[in-house]
Queue: 2 jobs
Job 1
Amino acid sequence: MNESNGTFNNINNSELTSENMIKVIFSYMGRIAYTRDLDELLLLMADMGRLMVVSDRCTLWLVDDESGQLWTRVAHGIGRQTIAIDSGFVGHTIKHNQHLLIEDAYKDSRFNPSIDEQTGYRTKAVLCIPIENAEGKVIGAYQAINKKTPEGKFSLKDVAYMTLVASYSGKALESAQLVYEIEQTQKEIIYVMGEIGESRSQETGNHVKRVAEYSKLLAIKIGLGDNEAELIKMASPMHDIGKVGIPDSILKKQGKLTNEEFSIMKTHAEVGYNLLKSSRRRIIQAASIVSHQHHERWDGNGYPQGLKGEQIHIYARITAIADVFDALISSRCYKLPWDLNRIIELFQMEKGKQFDPLLVDTLLQNIEEILIIKNTYADISKKDED
Ligand code: C2E
Ligand code: SIN
Ligand code: SIN
Ligand code: FE
Ligand code: FE
């Protein structure tokens, strides 16, 4: 066994000595205790389990009460993998709150070979351990696959180790799930706030999600870090929150606005800023700047302040281009969607006038990825849903 960067690498494929077992436990428990990120936690726990029982693979499956499925994270950045709650050994373990010790999966009728069929992997020995929360409710299961020692099968000792780890994991998982739950709720509230701003009752409000995704993409492509890109993604959907103050007779007018109506419409930037500016939360602070400045123009002819060039906050410059792209490619109560060539022409023409020239280049160079976002979050009109 060797050790590097705090991770262990069992090169001999032998059972851990008790000394190494303690090393693994201490190294992982420390990291697990300080991780509040659910993805990270699942990966750490799976890794720890894999080392402790010397298995080739180890997965931690969680029950999703809403969908009635089991899910896991295979790797960071890759989406959830899901299976039916009653599927295979894991499903059996969860349903009966009982561990399973299998020597050869293919000789057992409970085995669900569909994942093997998709991946070409050959499952043989399997160990499944239920994970309970503090109230004794089963919230998931550990699944270790293929013992790497020469014997090739899991033992009762492995069951004992994993049961211990599972009982510890349950608590950490529950609090991480709670944090995750709160974060998801926050994100939903952000989109709902944005949709209220847009007040486009005839659409599903995917406009704000698209603006969020385009903005994040542009932020990454111009070299902002992941954290800042994520902050822009959270703040940009609120750019039009100030439209809550605009009467429907103007907001939903079918045709062109009169000058007077447009001057009322323009107040939405200031209104949004005033709604959000007093918050000390980082996301809301960013949103207040975006609300205020998303109709400023690079050449200084925008509103409400007439800021110019880099006086306009980069978050607002990004949101501005994302917002206009989406306004043009979508239908509005006052306009039909434009075709892509016309949109590209407009951005080329407005480069350095309405928009930051660097951001125009970035948008046009990444137009395929932008269109993928557009199609992923397509609008479904309420009529189609009913
Ligand atoms: P919005 O619909 O979200 O549009 C955001 C921005 O996209 C607009 O900011 C403008 O920069 C750009 N945009 C949208 N449609 C067009 C277009 O047909 N041609 C060009 N060149 N740019 C377009 P803007 O102009 O400051 O407008 C702010 C908001 O005012 C719009 O938000 C919309 O809610 C409202 N609005 C603007 N013009 C009209 C109109 O003629 N009729 C109605 N009913 N509302 C309008
Ligand atoms: C099973 O436990 O049989 C299905 C899940 C898997 O093979 O990973
Ligand atoms: C604002 O005036 O909207 C905020 C100032 C800024 O950071 O750009
Ligand atoms: Fe706006
Ligand atoms: Fe908008």
Job 2
Amino acid sequence: MKRLATAILAIALPALSAEQPNILFIFTDDHALQAISAYGGRFEKIAPTKNIDRLAKEGMIFRNSFCGNSICGPSRASILTGKHSHVNGFMDNDSGLFDGGQQTFPKLLQKAGYETALIGKWHLVSNPTGFDHWEILPSQGSYVNPDFIQMDGSKKRVEGYVTDIITDKTIEWLKNRKDKTKPFVLMTQQKAPHRSWVPAPRHYKLFDGIDMPEPPTLFDDHSHRIEALKKQEMTIAKHFSWGLDMFLHGKPTDPRFIGGLANGEYARMTNAQKTEFDAAYGPENEKLLAALPTMTDDDLTRWKYQRYIKNYLRTIRAVDENVGRTLEYLEESGLAKSTVVIYSSDQGFYLGEHGWYDKRWMFEESLKMPCVIRWPGVIKPGVEPEAMIQNIDYAPTFLEMAGAAIPADMQGKSIVPILKGEGKTPDDWRNAVFYQYSGENTHHVARHDGVRDSRHKLMHFPDTKEWMLFDLEKDPQEMKNVFADPTYSAVAEKMKTLYADLKKQYAANDSNLPMHRLKESWWKDRWVVKNKEVHNSKDAKIVFLGDSITQAWEDTGKSAWDKHFAPLGAVNWGYSGDRTEHLIWRLQNGNIQRLNPKVAVILIGTNNTGHSQRPAAETLAGIRQTLNDLSWKWPDTKIILMSIFPRAEKADDPLRQLNDEINEQLKTLVNGKRIHLLDINAKFMNDEGTLRKELLPDLLHLSPAAYDIWADALSSKLNELGL
Ligand code: CA
């Protein structure tokens, strides 16, 4: 019977594949729209990107294309999953790894009959999953003589320039595909034009003698907006390093540069490569060193801008040449007609606007993502859709192109109707995009989220509870926050409503946005200790996850713990004062997935209630996210979800009632097989619902006797589950 099914499948696939286009996703890192001539901008004539422009001319160019979180890893995770960062779990580049066990579009395309491959920059820490072939740069990778991690874990160094080599490997893979009857999806992911902007040697002198145009906001003083803008560390004037960014040798001789970061790419060069590099940059460097002592701050900023922008645009010249080379190969090989080609980049970038380099902020330059798509015979060439699209849309789009079903939990929308519909915006299309940056140590940009519609942008800064509102029509450079301007009060209200609506739609609230407490030293210390403990507890059969009530198994509840759970090698992941968002952060960033317990006991949420009386639905979203994370990490582990213990003396206390309300909703999360609800709250109360003070002396935490009660109830439940 099984053989018969395989035979039918084998017959069905080639027929199906005739309808399924190949997908070539050419993806760069930090390529801003204003550096692609098809999008116009100040480099249109001086540094054209003729091959990307050709794609735009033969396909569609999306001018309202946005990321959801303007940093490298998170944007990539959103592309793979079709979900915003807080749902796919990859919030920032500082912490953790992408959970490759979760649903991604390459895995679904494999099931739909596609051969899948990824070559180049990956940057999601864990190894790629869902690809029949991959070859990736380690972390950020190198421009010069780059290393590639192979599927067997070994590393291979290739001499040459990274953009050329990734393209070589792309073409090689296309030539040598194993099964040419299968459609393919190939993700060619370039390092360029990411910092530190080292060009190919053939482009070292490109743009020499040319003064690159400056943006009008190069000397933005960041006034008329919130103070957080002045606290970032990503200015051209003050935050470029002597070696890494400016290609100067030795130690800084001028305090207006950052020291410390050497030019690591130079260190990778062979002697011959170093000679070529020094011949190109040496004379200009010497001129600068001579002029520095008397150079004004503004003149030095201008010099840094020129050095930066020329190198950035030089790396893009190599990208564009290689796009051309790839398109040529598609023509030669006959693949062009059956292959959708997409050019995109993980987010935008500041090319001196607001005085900045880098990304992160929700301002236009880094919020926007290039998106150019050529689909022969389907897309009407030269069309420029108005629709607002986002990185979460790629996964559902690729699935629809392949004729595969789009899972309901993907948050993006397929843009295929736009591609097929001559660029017309579908009636049910979104009218705004949601954005969320969770903060990183790098560059000190305050965490914020917000919404943008076709005219206005609202940003929210939760740490200072501040808002910024911009009128993109009257103030396209975003120089003036009009949130408190009375003439914008109606707009502000409208945008706040939109913000609340989108947060609800995307299930984004404080309870399910991962958050750490590393600034509290005891918490940080516990974090280190607990991760070490996991390392030494591989055979743990049971893991406890929660807040202080779980943590206190270590003292108040110790005798019950020793009797019931220590023999099972139990691990205690309770942290006093934690709310759902902290537990989620710990699950997403720690090493707990090294364990494979039979049971996890979860008790979390009472601090969501106690600290700020959050609505029950929000706390529930946090608990749901916790379960979701665990379902990827431990698919076979049974979950005992504890009803949140009662708090406050009397049953009509608002905090007690809020916990009751959450407990009622917890029932919706239970499925009989994996997730089991355990409610022992009645044991802690008298008949009329008042708390028994001998069990909860401070009306929140348990006494030793109460831990005995909980341990007994858990032991019965474990028995019931056959464990
Ligand atoms: Ca990036």
